[in-house]
Amino acid sequence: MVKEHLYSLAVAADKYDIAPLRKVCEHHLKESLSTSNALDILEISDRCSFQSLRDATLDFIATNYKDITCSKRYNDFTIDNPHLASTITRAWAFRR
């Protein structure tokens, strides 16, 4: 429940350009990164142009590449977000 509110708040902060709220949301999203929510956070960071969060999330995904990309969620994610799926692959490849 809290997760959905944070995601919605981040989108609203971006939409209405509320810089202090954007910063707080970005911080909390970074702190909550896990293998189970990294793809959701990457989608939000891309949608809201949270570059710092996007970079941190890509680094996290590259570090946990196998766990994240071998999930059912990743298969659905690649269909909905092909540009982000290729970005993940590049981040992983450049990390090696």
From TrEMBL:
UniProt-listed InterPro entries:
At1g01640-like, SKP1/BTB/POZ_sf
Q: According to its UniProt record, in which pathway does this protein act? A: Protein modification; protein ubiquitination
Q: Which domain of life is it from?
A: Eukaryota
PANTHER family attached to this UniProt entry? BTB/POZ DOMAIN CONTAINING PROTEIN, EXPRESSED-RELATED, BTB_POZ DOMAIN CONTAINING PROTEIN, EXPRESSED
Q: What is this protein called?
A: BTB/POZ domain-containing protein
Q: Organism source for this protein?
A: Striga hermonthica
